[in-house]
Amino acid sequence: MLTINSIKNGIVIDHIKAGFGMKIYKYLELDKVDYSVALIMNAESRKLGKKDIIKIENNLEMDFDVLGFIDPNITIDIIKDESIYKKIKLKLPRRVENIIECKNPRCVTSVEKNIPHIFNLVDEKTGEYRCEYCDQIYENISL
Length: 143
Fold this sequence. Notes:
Blueprint: E1 10-17, H1 21-27, E2 37-45, E3 49-56, H2 64-70, E4 75-80, E5 83-89, E6 95-97, H3 108-111, E7 118-123, E8 128-131, E9 137-139
Antiparallel strand pairs: 1-3, 1-4, 2-3, 4-5, 6-7, 7-8, 8-9
């Protein structure tokens, strides 16, 4: 079994659905940082079978709504002095802005510039969102 040492201070993004770790890694632009980052893919998990984990040896600001949208089962562990200081359980955000784009060619967001793409959660079980302007449905495929 692979062993990754603990981090002194930073963030552990855990319980990522297998295969979605790289998506989060790219979204957070972790390939451009100069501090230690570990991306563990397809790690064994009793709860999920397989999971991805990202360990970041640095404290950084991140949008938890985006991470919750990508995978609502993620947990965030804030690490201080090699111990879990705070644990955050994510969920699907009620509203997302400029995370996804409306695909309706007649939507005002497709015609006008500088209008934010706003979607509201309609069904938490299916991850269905609707465009605030035209009611176009977006189904979250990560669920």
